[in-house]
Every structure is written in C-alpha cells, then in structure tokens.
Amino acid sequence: MAESGVYVDMARGGAAGSVPHPLPPPLDVVLERGCPVSGLEDLLLEVGDVEALAVWHAMRPALEAACRLRYRVVRAGESILSFVPGVSLQAAVDTTCGGRVRLSRFAHVRRDRDVLVLDSPRATGRVEMEAVTGVELVAHLATAESVDRLTERLGGGTEWVAAAIAVLQSAGLVLPADDDGSTLEDRDVHAAGWEFHDLVLHERSRSYRRDLRVGATYRFVDTAGKYEEPGARRRESTTIPLARPDIEALAERDPPFTRVLESRRSRRFHGATPIGIEQLGEFLFRTARVTPLDVDGSGRSDARYRLYPGGGACHPLEVYVLVARCAGLAPGCYHYLADAHALDPVDADETAVQSILGQSAVPMERGSTQQVQLVFTARFHRINRRYEGNAYALVLQEVGALYQTMYLVATAMGLAPCAVGGGNADAFARLIGTDPLEEASVGAFVLGRP
C-alpha cells in the first residue's frame, strides 16, 4: 500500500517539442514509475548519481511549463487529487504546510466531461478531484483552517492533509491566512476590484497557462455541419426592402473623418420628429450590411465582408430593429437581413417589444422618448466552433467594433446615437423565438433624430 503524501509522475499529453522526449535516464524510469516527492532526490542518487539529481533540478521547471509532470496527493494508497502545472512553478512542490490557510475567493469547482475540476483564473495548472475526501477538504477551506484542525475534521492522516494543502498552494488555489482569517488576496486593493466572473473571463481568454488552449483550435469542426442558422419568428408578410444609398456621393458630402471622430458623443435626446425609414436604411447599409467576398474569381464565396472587424471573420452578430417611432415603418420588431439589405418583420407581441424597450433603454433626457433601438444578437455557434477559450471575448470585442462604427456613422449623418450597456438576453431570446444558448442579445444601440 502506497504511503500518504505527494507523488510525482509523468502526465499524459503535454506540450510537444518543449522538452526532450524521451527523458534522459534514469529520470525517465523514475518519473514513469512514479515516486514520492519527499524521496525523489534520494532515489535519483541511488539509481543514478549527482548528475541525475542535477538534471532533475534543471529540467523540472521546463517539464512543469510543458504540462509533463503530475503531482498526486495520496491517502493510504487512494489518490485524492492531482495537479498538472501549466507554468514553471516558482518553487518545487513541498509536502509540508504550516499555519492556517484559506481557499482563494476566485476558486470554483466545475465538471469537465467525467472529471471534477478545481479551478481559478489565478491557478497555475489543472487540479482534478479524484475522491470525495478531496472535495470535503476544499469545502472546509471556505474559512481559514490549520492542518491540525482539518485533520481533526476529516479524520486521521496529517501527512496527506498537509500534502494536499501544499499542492493546492503550489496551484495558487489556497493562500496563507492571517489570524483574522484574511489572505493577501483579500487585502490586495487590485484583487479587491475584480469580480469573480470578470476575472474568469479575462484570464481564460488571455491565458498564460500551457494546459489551457486559447485560439482557433476548431474544436467543434466535426460537428459544424449539424448546426443550422436559427431564424426569428417571421410574420406572414414579405420582407421590407431598404433603399441603398450612393456611397460615392456620401464620400463626397460627408464631413471630414477627424471632425466626425472629434464630434462623436452619446446623445440621449430624440426630437418630436422621428427618424424615417430612408435614414434608417442608409444607417444600416453604412454600418451592418454584408457583402460577399469573391476570393477565387468564381463569383461565389461563403466569406462575407463587413464594415467592422471580427475574430476570424466569423461575424456572429445579427441586428434586430425595435421600432417605437419611425416614419414609414410600423412599431414592432424587425430582423435586418444584412445580405439583402432588407427588414424581415418578426412575429412579436407589441407589448413584449415595448417591455424590452423599457428594460434595456438608456436613460433618455427629460421630455424625450427613444425612437429606434438596434439590438445585437450573437449566433454563438459561428464563433464557438472555431475558437476555444476566447470565443465569447471575441464576441464582445466585435460588439465594441460595431458600436464605434455606428457612433461614427450616426455622427456623420447628424443623428443621435447612444450605446446600451445592459439588457435582458433571455427576454429578447423569447421575443424572437430562439434558444438563448443558440442566439441571444449581447449589445444594443439607441438611434433617433435629435
């Protein structure tokens, strides 16, 4: 029966090409077999020599950064949890722990396939919970606890408890606690300014860890054909074509770019005379239309060009028009068909439309009510099937690019624009009849005549 403590062995997978493969002997044999961390150096001296020990110390940081090492916490032969570093640790994983410790407030437990993972945006690698005892240990660390107190609460085995705390500290999930129970993280003014969900999104989409994949991995490329573009509930009517402005004429008469840029403001006062369908059509044409790209000279292409940038040109955004007051267009909800430059009426209850307008509207100035609100939705599969780790961050970046494009065009046209910072994604998905995990609102923009 294996003793309690921390064992080190080779992790499966890892980053290819970053360290020699196979490892030099006798390090290869020792790590493939696994060994207690506390006896690793003595074993290397026994089966090798001082040179073998020096190789271990020299290669350990690179092995950790390449996700090639696994540290397992064992209790009387049972594996409690395992830790695969994704960066070079500042110090070797120890087997001892002193003083009280506490779980990071950014730590969280989640299921990944069939494995329970303890994670954090500040973690240095992947921790998998392999026994209920490990989950119980983590639950007790919601408050500051000492090894002795944890051993008492969990029942027997100071060695494995101390080993688990040491590993979790190396993973950045557990921090030393002061007498009042606070950690350095609690007292850090910079950490205090972060909410949990914001830091998770930030770190996950710009990760430095080698065990987390970020970028165009095409993770769902095999299932891409199973996706179908969702469509909003259409009314029993034809689409409404919009006039196409003369771009060359606009280029001649528009104010200079610098003047437009310097004049851009959020304007929350809409006049008594509403925007007209002609202006709305020109605005949408200049901001949100889609143009096919003839990439091979054949006249056919699946690629689409938009006037604002998007990650990998996936362009998950769709634009819906909520009309409160617009000359030539009845109040209601419309889907902007970006390739046809037309409006498709959505079969939505007028009361529900007004409710959405009220929920997500920016505060208008006194005596003013909004005229038109443009709601941006994301059809998530367009970007999720290609990007991993940063897909939603790319959606938000594209929303920002569309915001600025709309601000500049509205300023050039003499309209009153204002971006909307909030909104009810589930309510809007119900309005247009889509699953919010398939298509949901991610931004909105109020527009009208000043």
Task: Describe this protein's structure.
This protein is an alpha+beta fold and 450 residues long. The protein has two domains: 5-212, Outer Surface Protein A, domain 3 (Alpha-Beta Complex), CATH 3.90.930.70; 216-448, NADH Oxidase (3-Layer(aba) Sandwich), CATH 3.40.109.10. It is built from 16 helices and 20 strands. The chain has helices at 27-33, 40-47, 50-65, 132-140, 147-154, 158-170, 184-187, 189-192, 196-205, 247-253, 257-263, 277-287, 350-360, 381-384, 391-413, 425-432, and strands spanning 5-10, 35-36, 69-75, 78-85, 101-103, 108-112, 115-119, 125-129, 174-176, 215-216, 240-241, 291-292, 304-305, 317-323, 332-337, 342-345, 372-379, 387-388, 416-420, 439-448. A seven-stranded antiparallel β-sheet has the order 2-1-3-4-8-7-6. A seven-stranded antiparallel β-sheet has the order 11-16-15-14-17-20-19, with helices on both faces. The chain has a two-stranded antiparallel ribbon with strand order 5-9. α11 (257-263) packs across α15 (391-413). The longest helix has 23 residues, at 391-413. 39% of the residues are buried. The mean pLDDT is 90.
Describe the structure in brief.
The protein is of the alpha+beta class and 450 residues long. It has helices spanning 27-33, 40-47, 50-65, 132-140, 147-154, 158-170, 184-187, 189-192, 196-205, 247-253, 257-263, 277-287, 350-360, 381-384, 391-413, 425-432; strands at residues 5-10, 35-36, 69-75, 78-85, 101-103, 108-112, 115-119, 125-129, 174-176, 215-216, 240-241, 291-292, 304-305, 317-323, 332-337, 342-345, 372-379, 387-388, 416-420, 439-448. A seven-stranded antiparallel β-sheet has the order 2-1-3-4-8-7-6.
